[in-house]
Fold this sequence. Notes:
Largest sheet: 10 strands, mixed
Oligomer: single chain
Number of helices: 20
Low-confidence stretches: 1-9, 13-34
Number of strands: 12
Distance between the termini: 11 Å
CATH topology of the largest domain: D-Maltodextrin-Binding Protein, domain 2
Number of domains: 2
CATH architecture of the largest domain: 3-Layer(aba) Sandwich
CATH class of the largest domain: Alpha Beta
Mean pLDDT: 92
Amino acid sequence: MSQRSYRRREFLKASAAATLAGTGAFSLARQAFAADPINFFAWSAGVDQVKSHISAFEAKTGLKVAYNNAPWAQYRDTLVTKFVGRAPLDVLWVSDSWLPEWAEAGWLAPIDGYPQLLKYNADVDDFSTQSMMYKGKQYGLTYYTDYMGFFYDEDKLKKAGIGAPPKTWDEVVQQSLKIKKAGLAEYPLMLSMARETWLIEFLSAMVFSHGGRFVDDSGVAVMQDKKRGAHAALSWIVEAVNKHKIVSPACVEIGELNGLKAFTSGNHAFALLGRYRVRTLNDPKQSQIAGRVRQALMPAGPGGSHATVGWNRFYGLTSQAAANKEKAANAVKLIEWFGGKADGKYAFQKLMFMDVGSGFAVKPLFKDAEIIKAYQQYSDIGMYERQQALAKKKDVISPWFGEWDEVNGTAWQAAIVGKSSVDDALRKSADSWNKLRKQG
């Protein structure tokens, strides 16, 4: 076990023990808890919208909310520090990537005992609900969800004599070669393969659409399996870069934001990007190709499908709040007000979509007239809904995800730049996963 791995595991064990020990103190302070405000912590996104919705909640319920936030880049470290110091925290914004670690550490409480929250699952896309599950328990209600989308520059396709976007990854190659030959783009497909937090989303979209997986249902690595793993996806990327030369070899240095900028500059015909980026892509103030960008279903690999990867951010209930019945009841009311319905409507999800373009997982909003009208300004809401219905949760989220992700990203990059074979890269990734999984 690496020293880093040991430190992380010992830290989580110690944190869990401290949390459990602290619950006794919380139970002794039952009356004091009841008088306290609901402590709500989020990252600094949609701050004005959050404050407005809190004010409405306070007016409706008579309860008080103490709201604080931190920038996304510092959010996780800030929360870990607060958890360890047992700072007052009741309701949080949580990323699906952190759920296993935070649940194992005893910082989050499941919401399975609150039917007033679980009833909303009926309206939520399944991958979003699954992203809030850990070891058979649900840990929150969705705040924001989205997925990796496939976009194309309609103008470039027309100039190359292409009448419809590609439906398969083979067609992506064929159309890209045609566009390249016409001199419309040196590297028609933009892929961001830099080692950053976005990388696992790009890789998962490629793997899932090729019909593969990183791990099986029992959590054992299958990424190295040529029939059901990631072999087809990585092989496709390696050939796209080195054989067909339709993807830049510099892709291993291009992060998501720089990839977005390159696509909006008109340098490519196709791109994988977060679905929500379409608002930027078709904004004349931010994009040189505004009005020309369309979304298509994720291309399918041989034996694959139009599946893509989705991600989820949600409202979590802390173990601190759950340890006190009255405090928990108030916290659950706030979670429902934000993640469920407020006065009978999915008000906050709609507010965030209309104001800042945040994606949502509650299916009834796809039929909302105002949302349909707003989305028509820059994309097709029917395609948005169709692709989201095919999204899958990341299958590698685990307490050891961060450590494995570094090894996996490096292995994929080595294969892409020709320093490793596809087989060796995926074997290295699988060996790392299985070793970390065994350590627990």
